[in-house]
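Schema walk-through. Below, the input block comes first and the output block second. Nothing else is stored per chain. Lengths vary across the set, and this one has 68 residues.
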Amino acid sequence: MEHLKLEKSYLMGYAMGAMILTRFALKYANRVKKMLLLNTAASFPSDDMIREITTINSKALVFQQNAP
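--- output ---
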């Protein structure tokens, strides 16, 4: 946001992105005008769980890109 010179912004997150956006908004509430959360959970996964999900998603993407 600093790079784009944005003081506040409207933000949208879907699924895991919505959970990450919620954490962002809690930490940087002064940077968020409004946010839209779609298809998200009511609880936060641990940082370890986020890393594990990200790793699995990355491996699945590589597999999909290399599939015949």
